[in-house]
């Protein structure tokens, strides 16, 4: 649960050493990507394609193939993950199913060859070499810092969770049957070569994974071979299959994926409940009772006209709505995303530097890793609904559990994933927006009634390492 904000505690007695920001470890090969900002990272990822061209002509529309023939890019891609690193990774306690899948496409179907329990490297090597099985390594950013850096920046860029899987396939073999996914896909070819066939979607921008039989997908719309340093993008719903050609010892690629359940439909599902609740406060039509026994009827077609009318009233209300709430999607993103990548040897975030005072000037830190939401008070169980302001952040998220499901998350007492942040009265909303929207702001200029409230707000954010004092 977020901590309460707005009270000066004993934080003044805490250490005032600066929040440590150690330099990142150098990669095995010089980076060809720009990590100056999320935008520069994405532009360098799809180079030489321009960002504007990508979103105008390709995003959610059609595949993009970037074949580079660049030794520097190829060397950098290879440094992200290699077959020879599997033995060391297996020594860290990998498990079948959770960390690694072993599979092969046989007669158009996926055959899973997983064993039970921990992964034994020699058995994995045997399945790879003798059974021609594909090794699927789940979420390698948990172990590979360079992938952590890339995916953390992409999560900032897209505002959506970004996962990854590594696929290692021996020559003359195919790991998966033709299928489509529910994510936007970026494929980086790391080692060897992979022969790809893409097909026209049967379900454009699909919302779920599905295998498609060969007799339904027709002829490929695209067919090509990826080599080290090449990049491939295709939208969710694109049917695809890939194999390692004969004569190539093996192929290694990483699939970076995003935008799962991140559509307008998902946003509507998230925002409508709050909109209905707020509109019903002002519109009596939404507070009138439904017909007697409506919930007992088999056929409810007669009420569709009434619902249509109420939806139009909601649409009218939406036109004049100042604040559209999307708490669940926002909270899910910030709770499960990667923390900032400051180096594997960095200490946990601790407040440091000068304490904020009423005469201080402050600046927001880690803007891309914090959100503001307005939602019902989670600590008030009485019948009166009271809205509070919550500031959630991902600074204390665990890289080790990223994209691994709720069973691996740091859990709170109620079994839900732990959220990190602060809770404020609704009267603090405008002051928080000041801090978020300004490059710097004076504490005494915050839009709050008293100097004590202003100083308390700044101190609360400082304790979470969300602001620095200039």
From TrEMBL:
Reactions catalysed, as given in the entry: L-histidyl-[protein] + 2-oxoglutarate + O2 = (3S)-3-hydroxy-L-histidyl-[protein] + succinate + CO2; L-histidyl-[ribosomal protein uL15] + 2-oxoglutarate + O2 = (3S)-3-hydroxy-L-histidyl-[ribosomal protein uL15] + succinate + CO2
Protein function: Oxygenase that can act as both a histone lysine demethylase and a ribosomal histidine hydroxylase. Is involved in the demethylation of trimethylated 'Lys-9' on histone H3 (H3K9me3), leading to an increase in ribosomal RNA expression. Also catalyzes the hydroxylation of 60S ribosomal protein L27a on 'His-39'. May play an important role in cell growth and survival. May be involved in ribosome biogenesis, most likely during the assembly process of pre-ribosomal particles.
Annotated JmjC domain residues: 139-271
Protein's recorded name: Bifunctional lysine-specific demethylase and histidyl-hydroxylase
Superkingdom in the source lineage: Eukaryota
Main location: nucleus
GO biological process: ribosome biogenesis
Entry GO CC: nucleolus
Subcellular location: Nucleus, Nucleolus
Family: Belongs to the ROX family. MINA53 subfamily.
Source organism (scientific name): Junco hyemalis (Dark-eyed junco)
Cofactor(s) essential for the protein: Fe(2+)
Matching Pfam families: JmjC_2 (PF08007), WHD_ROXA (PF20514)
An MF annotation (GO) of this entry: peptidyl-histidine dioxygenase activity
UniProt feature coiled coil, ranges: none
Keywords annotated in UniProt: Dioxygenase, Iron, Metal-binding, Nucleus, Oxidoreductase, Phosphoprotein, Ribosome biogenesis, Transcription, Transcription regulation
Cofactor note: Binds 1 Fe(2+) ion per subunit.
């Amino acid at each position: 649960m977020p901590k309460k904000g707005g009270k000066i505690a004993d934080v003044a007695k805490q250490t005032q050493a600066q929040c440590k920001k150690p330099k990142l470890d150098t990669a095995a090969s010089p980076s060809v990507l720009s990590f100056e900002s999320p935008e520069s990272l994405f532009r360098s990822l799809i180079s030489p394609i321009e960002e504007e061209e990508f979103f105008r002509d390709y995003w959610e529309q059609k595949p993009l193939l970037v074949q580079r023939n660049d030794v520097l890019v190829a060397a950098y891609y290879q440094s992200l993950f290699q077959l020879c690193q599997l033995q060391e990774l297996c020594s860290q306690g990998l498990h079948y199913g959770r960390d690694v899948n072993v599979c092969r496409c046989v007669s158009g179907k996926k055959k899973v060859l997983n064993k039970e329990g921990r992964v034994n490297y020699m058995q994995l090597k045997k399945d790879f070499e003798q059974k021609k099985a594909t090794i699927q390594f789940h979420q390698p950013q948990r172990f590979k810092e360079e992938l952590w850096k890339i995916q953390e920046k992409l999560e900032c860029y897209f505002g959506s969770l970004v996962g990854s899987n590594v696929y290692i396939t021996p020559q003359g073999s195919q790991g998966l049957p033709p299928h489509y996914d529910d994510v936007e896909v970026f494929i980086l070819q790391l080692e060897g070569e992979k022969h790809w066939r893409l097909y026209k979607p049967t379900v454009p921008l699909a919302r779920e994974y599905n295998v498609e039989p060969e007799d339904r997908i027709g002829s490929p719309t695209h067919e090509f071979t990826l080599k080290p340093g090449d990049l491939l993008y295709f939208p969710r719903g694109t049917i695809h299959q890939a194999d390692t050609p004969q004569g190539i010892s093996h192929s290694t690629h990483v699939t970076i994926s995003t935008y799962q359940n991140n559509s307008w439909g998902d946003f509507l599902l998230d925002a409508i409940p709050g909109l209905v609740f707020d509109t019903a406060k002002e519109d009596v039509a939404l507070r009138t009772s439904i017909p007697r026994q409506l919930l007992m009827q088999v056929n409810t077609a007669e009420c569709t006209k009434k619902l249509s009318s109420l939806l139009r009233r909601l649409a009218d209300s939406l036109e004049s709505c100042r604040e559209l709430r999307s708490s669940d999607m926002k909270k899910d993103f910030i709770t499960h995303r990667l923390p900032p990548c400051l180096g594997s040897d960095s200490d946990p975030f601790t407040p440091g530097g000068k304490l904020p005072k009423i005469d201080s000037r402050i600046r927001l830190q880690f803007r891309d890793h914090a959100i503001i939401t307005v939602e019902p008070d989670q600590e008030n169980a009485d019948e009166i609904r009271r809205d509070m302001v919550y500031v959630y952040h991902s600074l204390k998220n665990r890289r080790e559990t990223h994209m691994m499901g709720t069973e691996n998350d740091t859990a709170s007492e109620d079994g839900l994933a732990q959220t990190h942040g602060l809770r404020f009265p609704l009267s603090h909303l405008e002051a928080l927006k000041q801090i978020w929207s300004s490059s710097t702001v004076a504490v005494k200029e915050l839009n709050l009634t008293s100097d004590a409230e202003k100083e308390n707000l700044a101190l609360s954010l400082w304790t979470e390492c969300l602001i620095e004092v200039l």
